[in-house]
Structures are given as structure tokens and as C-alpha cells.
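Reply to dn_fold:

You asked what the input looked like. This is it:
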Amino acid sequence: MPTGAALFDHDGTCGDSTGSDIDMSRPIDQIKAWQDEEKLSPEAAEHIEKWLSDEVYAAFEADIVSLIADENFDELEDAFRTQIAFGTGGIRGKMGTGPNRINLRTIGEAAQGLAQYVLESGPEAAAKGIAIANDTRNNSDVFAREVATIAAGNGVKAYLFKSPRATPELSYAVRALGATAGVVISASHNPPRDNGFKAYWSDGGQVVHPHDSAITDQVKAIETIKRADIDEARSRGLIEPMPESMDENYLRDTSIRLSNNRNISIVFTPLHGVGATSIVPALEHLGFHQITVIDKQNDFDGNFPTVAGGVANPEDPGAMTMAIQRAAEINADLVMASDPDADRLGCAVTLPDRGWDAPPADLALNGNQIGVLLIHHLLSKGNRTDGVFAKTIVTTDLSADIARASGLDVVDNLLVGFKYIAQVIADQGNPARFVFGTEESHGYLATHTVRDKDAASAAMILADLAATLKAKGSSIRAYLDDIYAEHGYYREIQKSITREGATGNGDIQQIMSSLRESPPTEIAGRPLARVIDRQAGTSTDPHSGAVEPIDGDKGNVLAFTFTDAGKTRVTARPSGTEPKIKYYVSAASKDLKLDGTTLAETKTNVDKAAQDILDGMVTVAEAALNG
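and this is what came back:
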């Protein structure tokens, strides 16, 4: 079993269990006893008994017995208390044994449910098939083949990439093939222990209503998983390799040329993921040839061994440490990094007084800043005065301000998840009206031929911006300050608090429930203007109690605004893919009337207000939990 892989071997079997004082001949009796002693919940006990007694879970028996022998109550409770459910990106979580883990059984159930849903759409849908890709994570290739054999076992054609590919290329492939659905095996930027299954529909976007709930219903009812022998399925044409032309076609149809400026030196790291299969070719296709790829991070390795902190997340400046060091050595102009499935892009640029001689946190731009730069440059070069721009509710309003100033229609009430931005494209009578979509977590898209965030799309625009500014003797930081001078200064910060296991999940639910039932009237000494409950679809004045309906999809999100305009706010949201509750703060200088006599003074004022609000929100939330 590879280091860092799931708790099962590649064929789905488990290793030998270790001995203990527990009578292992009667593990089910032990589970019942622990339930009586309230060491395990009734739900966890029921699922453990099922996995020990039903032959379909036989491959996992040894691992369950090992957990029992170790009296690992926390793992047993967390892994078995519930069934892993579709979130913002399908199913995602820790690899291991149990219904609340990613393993061959839960991946198989997801694949079986998707295959059954495709079959319900008719024989033509089955013939059009499912496109399947995987990233470089441990077991991703195994899970991808499992999905293919299950599709074939149900009579649904499967197209399978021969090697790891970027998530946005899978989105493109679904559309290019005319496939009914698609699957990416990836956990995006999560820790190495995680993996996931993301489902796509025929438009190339991640599944949304009604498809997501329908697939979920299918998965919940799964009893039997149908698998085909992979060699037999290939001989019958039920499993086919992805056409060799797909890479070239994706590159051609997603290329973004804004200028002829190319004289910059770029350092790029794929962080052991697939970025060199999409981002580097995209840049080279446009004529960017001064690209230094970090060789030590260009091998496919799901353990991400050379990444600081071990998590290949370009949102974390520390992940770019090695790339920044190389940039300093060669005096590069720009550092870029992508996550394992190359749908998110991070970047770092020099400081005017220190160059690259600063900590990564001081050199990196956050996801909101990158999005602002991309939409501003795109509009300044593309001369678009019509079309549509889309963003999620936790993404900076500055990007929407820029889009409105250029005459674009703006959709800014979307829940977290790029699938909602993809749905905006699908809702356009002419998809070419789509100009740009952005989310604060480093997700960007500037073409309608792909229906998910695309790091290559962002890298092309960002590289063009850097080269254009260098030709003028300017810089990205100066350009960003010019935007602030025009539209006002915005500061976005966030904090994620991890709450592992069943207890942690209960804590998160309690915080959200308490905030919803007894919302604060002020945070950090600042009176609130509105409490926006996306789950109830309401906006409430916390002082008068007056309630107004709001538009948009419903989700477990609460926003507390400090002005009626709502551009200064703090949002609370449980993560859909990790055991975390997230608090997002956005503060705007004009909204809070904090403009100083200089931009530097304005930044100081707004930055302090943002930090005070974040600290205040955490205090309020902890009080809600403990009260």
C-alpha cells in the first residue's frame, strides 16, 4: 500500500488486524456493548454492524476489526455515524473504511448512482456515456478505473483519460464528446489524506438541481454495484481511452490572447499535481517561453512531499515557498502555483522596496485580489461593454463594481461553489455572453467552453497583465493600487475553524443554529444593519425585527452586514467539503467612510476594521457555542 494512501489496498482489501484484549471473535457484540455504554452512537453502531455482517463489505472487515481492537472510538464514530453526502463538489473527505469515508465502496456507490441516473435518461444518454478524469492523489487512478468499470457494468459507455488531467479539461471533454455526464476523482486542494468524486452533467458543469438531488437519491438506495471486467469492457467498446486530440483541442478552444507582450520571466509550480499538463502548454501556446517549472514539484505525488505544510493549496502562501525561492535566484517577474487538479491558481509578486526578500505571506496575492486584477485587465483589453459577470456571495464586491462600471450584467448572489457560476453560463441564451466568473478561493473562468474554474484561464490573463505592465515600467501591485484609487479600497480576510468528528460536526451545527435563532445586533462594537439568512431566504433588521425576502438559491449561510449597501459584512458558512466553519469578512472604505488622506492611511483604517470584525465574529460564534 503506498504511503499516505487510504486504509485499504488498491484492490479494496485491508491489511491484517492487530491483537488486543478484546475478544475479536465477537466484534458485533463489542459494538453493541459500546453502544450501551454510550461510547458509540446508535447510528455508528448500526452501520458498523452492517459493514461487518454484509458480504458486500467483506473487503473492509479486517480494518474494522483493527479499529475495534484499538478501541478507536473517535474514528469508528466519525467513519460510521453517517453516509458521506454530496456537498459543493460532490463527495469529498478522508480516505478510509466506513460510509463516511472515501473508499472503493463509497466511490462505487456514487458511480452506481450516477450510472443509474444516466440510464433513466434513456439509451441514447447511456450511449453518449461518461467522461472520467483523475488527478495525482493517492488512489485517484484506482477510483477512476472503478468508476469506468461500474459505468460499463451498467451498460453506460465510459471515456477514460490515460493519465492524470486537469479538472477543467474534463469539463471541456464532457462538452466536446457530447457526453451525458462526467466524473473527476479529486479532492482539489485538500490534505493528502483526502480524495473525492465530482459529478458533471452534459453542459460540462458540476451537477446542480435537479440532477444533484436525483443522483443523491439513487446513491442512498444502492444495494448492488454492477461492475464489468475492464478488459472485457474495453473489447466491447464500453470503455474507451479519451481521444488523443482532447489535449490539443482543449488548448485551442480555451486560449486567451489579449496582447503581444511576452517579455516576462515566470516561475510555476504544479505542487505535484497536473498543472504542467494544462497551464504550461497554455502559456507556451501564447508565446510565453521564459517559464521555469519547479522540477522537484513537477512529479505526480499525492503525498505532496516537498510542499510546505504538506497541503498543496495555492490559497496558502507557504505552498509557494520553493517557487518564491527560485524566483529570487533568477530575478523572475511572477510566481504562479496550481492545486493538484489545476482548477485553482495562486500567485506571488515582488514588493516595491524588497523584491522577493520577504515572507511568502507578504508576497502572495489573495484570491479576491487576483480576481479583481483578472476582470479589470480582461475588460480593459477586450472592450466588452455587454455580457454577464458572475461571483459568489463571499467574493469581493470590488470585482462586481468593476464589471458594472464596464456595463456588464452582474450576478452576485450565488452560493459558494463554482457550479453556480457554471449555471449562470447555462442560463444565458447565448453562452458567449459570459465574460468572467470568480470566487474568493482562487477559482476563475474566462471562457464559456469550460464550465468549471480553470487555472490555465487565469494564468493566461495574469501573465499577459504582468507582461503588459512590465512593458510600461509598472507592476501588478501598482496596478492594483490604481484600481483601489478608482473604486475604493476593499479588504477581505477569513478564518477557518476546524471541528473534526461527530462532536465537531455538532459544534458547527450548534453555532449556526444559535446565530440564526438569536442573531447579534452588533459585532466588534459596530451595529449591524441586516442579518441575511440564505437558508430561510430572508433579510432581517436585527433592531426592528422587520423581515424582507431575498432572491437566490438557498443554503446554510448567514451574513451580517454593517450598512444597508452590505459591502462591509461578515459571513458564516460551514464548509461543504471539509470539517470546518468559515468566517469571511469584507470591508470597504467607501462603505464604512474610512477613506484617509492617502491610500496608505485608507488601507490601515480598513485593514484594522476588517480584523476587528473578524475577531468579533469569532467571539460571537464561540459564545453561541458555549451559551
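DSSP finds 22 helices and 24 strands in the chain.
Hope that clears it up.
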